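Q: What does the predicted 3D structure of TetR family transcriptional regulator C-terminal domain-containing protein look like?
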Amino acid sequence: MAKTTSNSKVKAKPDSDALIAAYMDYVLVNEKTPKSVYKFSKDNGITEQDFYQYFGSFEGLRKEIWVRLFQNTLNVIQKSKEYKNFDNREKLLTFFYTLFEVLTANRSYILYALHDHDTPLKNLAELKNFRKHLKLYARDLIEEGNMNKTAQFLKQSETIFSEGVWIQFLFLLKFWMDDNSAAFESTDIAIEKSVNTVFDVFDNTPLERLVDFGKFLWKERMA
């Protein structure tokens, strides 16, 4: 994500990146959201029209931040030549590893955004568009895998899998938010074990992975 300084202003003809950077900087420096688009625009040397050219509200801007986080993740992994040759399990692992690296680079904002409201559901509302992109990514993975399976009974449900990946993300997000390990190493372990578990469940061989994953969660909970 683009960075800015606390006393900087948006350039004369702003683009969406500059507005997002200015907004993120504002909430981190002031520890609150701007009171109005008018005040935010004036403080950044632009007009309300400049803001509304890209976003209809702060809510729309906040949702777009999550979409950019998703897009940044895809841009990184798709540049890798190795990624194209990975199987679905390796691709999802790479996706989550990269996604949480992107989130970590913006951790202060993410933690603020997800604690902004007392009601968790209001905070998760910002992830609405992110959820659509994530589920589509997951559906594409399974669709690609199903194309290589000749027997119908071996094919996996795209709907169930994509919803499972979304739930998996929510679990990993909460885990990462609470993770106090150096370099968030525990989150990396959680990603590996959860992705392996999800795929093993779909491959009908869940027991060993589920036990291993359960032991890991118990250890982290009791530490």
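A (community wiki): The structure tokens above were generated from the sequence. Residues 58-78 form the longest helix (21 residues). DSSP finds eleven helices and no strands in the chain.
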